[in-house]
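Researcher: We plan to redesign the surface later, but first we want a full-length starting point. Tokens attached.
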């Protein structure tokens, strides 16, 4: 399921998603869950924390922990 999500946002099929594509993804999820999206600063922090090879792109190996982290962040918000 995570792989499928990744591929959907990897629009040029490069095996990596850009920071902007990642932000689109995070915002879309927030909208669907009807919660406030993280602000730009938080998003940048999330992405930078998980961009372990610092190429400003998120590959699948980086995406999975990042995805998990964001889901945790959103679930905490839902709980209030
Ligand atoms: Ca990377």
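Model: Full-length starting sequence:
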């Amino acid at each position: 399921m995570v792989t499928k999500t990744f591929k959907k946002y990897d629009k040029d099929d490069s095996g990596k998603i850009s920071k902007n594509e990642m932000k689109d993804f995070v915002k879309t999820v927030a909208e669907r869950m009807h919660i406030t999206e993280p602000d730009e600063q938080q998003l940048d922090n999330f992405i930078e924390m998980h961009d372990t090879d610092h190429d400003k792109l998120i590959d699948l190996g980086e995406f999975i922990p990042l995805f998990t982290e964001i889901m945790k962040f959103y679930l905490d918000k839902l709980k209030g």
